[in-house]
Specification:
Helix 1 packs antiparallel against helix 2, helix 3 runs antiparallel to helix 5 and helix 8 runs antiparallel to helix 9. This protein has a 3-stranded mixed sheet. The termini are far apart. 73% of the residues lie in helices and 3% in strands. It is mainly α.
């Protein structure tokens, strides 16, 4: 890997999604709407959970953190993708490419582990309801969240350690709208077969392994729920269905992209859009529309905001526009 100092490529040319001007305008409108809706939806969930004491429970603590992570997931590549739609030469520096890959896999790895933590939370709520608040204490929740971030960081750094000093001497065209390990490694000036295998083993097997753990845990929880008839179990089951939907949305594209990433497929970048934009957009909808407590809490928050605004206008008539 000592060829890194002899690299002649300092930036990469991203080919993007399409060369059609009409389609680019359509994509700009769609992606902008999705991105704004994703940010507002997830941040509104976080604000609702923080402001409503009825939602100060382990499940909603984890949900708020998932929403924060989703804002990060959608913000790593989407703003540049939208900006590049109007650029003829879509370039990204070598350091910018490495930085983007670092954050993509750190945040993505963290979300994978957090979804396992959320499944564990549902298991405790259903199988050990009397001990739920004791086991899932605030200290435990913070510890599990910290572990999620540490594992995500290790997952990302472990891959970067093998590719950060790769030599690049051309070509520098990347058939994507963002940087990721499969296409990045392909452009190196050395034989990358072993590195390709390492990336497959790291990202692909972790995605498959995490997905398998989650599916097994959900099946176990569903079997356990059938033995319970209490209201708390029914309530937990309704929340569980939302978790399963999110897992399928999140891991589907990940598994397709990383389990067989070489040679790269043209559909990969469209699946990447799904993970970078669609899934973070869908999560607030799934958790909100399938959760009565969240809907009630959101209505209370909106009423508080409108009441506060009305109160402010009454005491500050100059701000109401009447002069």
């Amino acid at each position: 890997m000592d060829g890194g100092n002899h690299s002649m490529v300092s930036e990469f040319l991203l080919l993007g999604l399409t060369s059609s001007w009409e389609i680019q305008i359509l994509l700009f409108l769609l992606f902008t709407i999705f991105y704004i809706a994703t940010m507002l939806g997830n941040l509104f969930i976080v604000l609702t959970i923080i402001s409503d004491h009825h939602l100060h429970s382990p499940m909603y603590f984890l949900l708020a953190n998932l929403s924060l992570i989703d804002t990060g997931v959608s913000s790593i590549a989407t703003p540049k993708m939208v900006y590049d739609l109007f650029r003829k030469h879509k370039v990204i520096s070598l350091k910018g490419c490495i930085t983007q890959m670092f954050f993509i896999h750190t945040v993505g790895g963290t979300e994978m582990v957090l979804l396992i933590v959320m499944a564990y939370d549902r298991y405790i709520a259903i199988c050990k309801p009397l001990h739920y608040l004791t086991i899932m204490s605030l200290k435990m929740c913070i510890s599990l969240l910290a572990i999620s971030w540490i594992i995500g960081l290790i997952h990302s750094v472990a891959q970067l350690a093998f590719v950060v000093n790769l030599p690049f001497c051309g070509p520098n065209q990347m058939d994507s709208f963002y940087c990721d390990f499969p296409r990045f490694i392909k452009l190196a000036c050395i034989d990358t077969y072993r590195l390709e295998f390492l990336v497959t083993a790291n990202s692909g097997f972790i995605s498959m392994g995490t997905f398998f753990i989650l599916i097994v845990s959900y099946v176990f929880i569903l079997v356990t729920v059938r033995k319970h008839t209490s209201g708390s179990a029914s309530k937990a089951l309704s929340t569980l269905s939302a978790h399963i939907t999110v897992v399928v949305f999140f891991f589907g594209p990940c598994i397709i992209v990383y389990v067989w990433p070489f040679p790269t497929l043209p559909i990969d970048k469209f699946l990447a859009i799904f993970d970078a934009l669609i899934t973070p957009f869908m999560n607030p909808i799934i958790y909100t529309f399938r959760n009565k407590e969240m809907k009630v809490a959101m209505r209370r928050l909106v009423c508080k905001i409108l009441s506060f605004r009305k109160h402010s206008l009454m005491h500050n008539p100059r701000n109401s526009g009447s002069s």
